[in-house]
Amino acid sequence: MTDWLALLSWVPLLAGAFFFLAGTVGLLRFPDIYSRLHAITKADTLGLGLVTLGLIMRAENWQAVAVMVLIWLLMMGSGATTCQLLARYQQDLEAPDADKEPVHARR
Amino acid sequence: MPDAEWLFDGTLGILLLVLAGAALHARSLYAAVVMFIALGLMLALTWARLGAPDLALAEAAIGAGVTGALLFSTLYKAGMDRHKRATPNRIALLLPGLAFLLLLTAAWPLPEMHSPLPDQVMAHLKDSGVSHPVTAVLLNFRAWDTLLEVSVVLIALLGVRQLYPSHGEVPTPWPLMLAWGRLLAPLTVIVGGYLLWRGTDAPGGAFQAGTVLAAGGVALRLIGVLPPLGWHQWPVRLLVLAGVLVFVAVAALTAWLGQGWLHYPTGSSKVLILLIELMATASIATTLTLLVVGEKRELRP
Amino acid sequence: MMALAGFLLLTALAGLWRLLRGPTRADRLLPIQFFGTTGTTVLLILAQAQQQPALRIVALLLALLAAVVPIALVQYLRRVGD
Description:
The structure holds three protein chains of three kinds. By secondary structure, chain A is an all-alpha fold. Chain A has four helices and no strands.
């Protein structure tokens, strides 16, 4: 690990922290569940990706990098999927007989 | 940076206390269950912070995984919106208070105490057949305890079998669920297998591996990829019993032919430990899956 | 590094408010999803800061479960809704 790389890694690390903060603000302040879902899944997945990028720049061996990349891929997939599952569940509750338009079209 | 560590530890402590209190005092059962899942997640972080990756793995697998599904299946059967009991009895609060004081006085001198056990374990590690001290304790030095624990899981399933309430139909899964579940299923097998294999020389092992497999099994059953599972199917029954049967067989054989009850012969410790762990993984995975999604039909064949 | 992990826990503490308040069932599951992501990130940071590579495996396990378990939870919720 070279010094300049460790120093440079603070850029994605801090950017990641910022997106986590943004996600939390969205979770607390947004008016309805769909926008809160949006905030939490997008911002936090990006935050996790950025923090992981920063940690990869500091990693000491390739095994650690491989595990972190795998986690990142998993989290991107699960963030997107869980968001869809919860949104569809809520949509089914609110309008069970509606056809499957995009959520925003009927709000 | 001691200040940063204080920030981390303090926040984690507050989170744990708030979540525990909220889980106990939530008005609806649903809220209490969700708090409890969140508490499990934070406990996993606590073990990680304390430098105990074995416990962190177990707590993450149980707390964040199977417990959530198990409690949700219970909620589904008991009624999601049921509200909790009236205000607790004040006098009844005295008892946990006393217990807390006792625990505190017991835990207070711990940081200064030095246990001789870790040194003893490390001294005998090379005779145990494995190179990870936790696995050596669980499956060699104290294998008797682990045998009983595997039996406890079996007894829990037998108990629940007597009480199975009705189990409704699985709702038609969305295509997204099917696709995602099918993508994740091989991953749970790979990660479970990896956890089992690395258990001999690093944190991991049968319990964590079985739990990951069970989480995959529950998800696959709930999206209808797996057929209904029940005690009446002989492969399921065999899988549930395999762990205890193999463990007892090894114990009996070592007692009969070897040097004593669960005293592995030198040289074959690693093979025996791996065999027991493999069977225990299969049993734990099947048992936990049945606990969550076992079918009622088995009661009236 | 520990300061960063502590900051992430602070955002989790703030997210707790949504968990306590709801109002809908899905709303209460949001912080669980959030804690899963934050917890995985914190574990990765701890693995680096405490020099314990085993914690990366815990993070992997948590990430996998955070992907698998929501399928089961949503299916149970839907079954109740029917």
